[in-house]
Amino acid sequence: MKKTLNLSPTSPARGSSARQCWKNLFRSVGLASLLAVAISGGDVVQAREMAITDSSFKCLNDMVKVRHFYVDNLLGNRKATIKVAQKGTGTYPPGSVVQLVPGEVMVKHPKGFSPATKDWEFFELDVSKDGSKIRKRGFADVVNRFGGNCFACHVKAKPAFDMVCEIDHGCDPIPITRRMLAALQKTDPRCTAPAALNEEDQHALKELDEVLKTMTLPAAPK
Q1: Which of 71, 88, 150, 159 has the least CB density, counted as fewest CB within 10 Å?
Q2: Which among 213, 196, 190, 185 is positioned nearest to 56, based on CA atoms?
Q3: Of 165, 137, 164, which is closest to residue 7 (Cα–Cα)?
């Protein structure tokens, strides 16, 4: 029996290939759409200290892989980010980037940026051989085509995990195997030397294609 991953929920995507399904999927929903919060003047100053642009994001192969996801740090403190990721518990330092697939990213801002989201900001990216383009960033306004809100999943992560979803973190599971995930990660078009897809990868992407056609997400909290 295949094990499934407790990952961020994703919306169904349809297309002629698993790769196209992936592209549509991660354009339609952010990794973790969360409730917007009021930000005080002091917190706005903190937020401005960390400018995030299209060029902030890179090929997955240029990040550091920890278990089944990738991490980096936009403020140069990669070592501290890796330490938390490898430990599996604790609070990620400001500048931390956590990325599961090419088209979705979560970035940690300085303390106080967004208390309700534990200072995480969430991004949808359009990715191509030319690089990354931020398609959407934010919190409560990132909702998938079926009305699902990723907050309904990530808010369930136990406090020790800093709102990052992995197996047994408390997040809602979705039926994506690690084999499917590994194949998706190889399709990052930003990489100058992307990994070749072997027969097992191709099979996993076809399986993912079928899963995405029937997947449904939890509704956004009211």
Answers
A1: 159
A2: 190
A3: 165
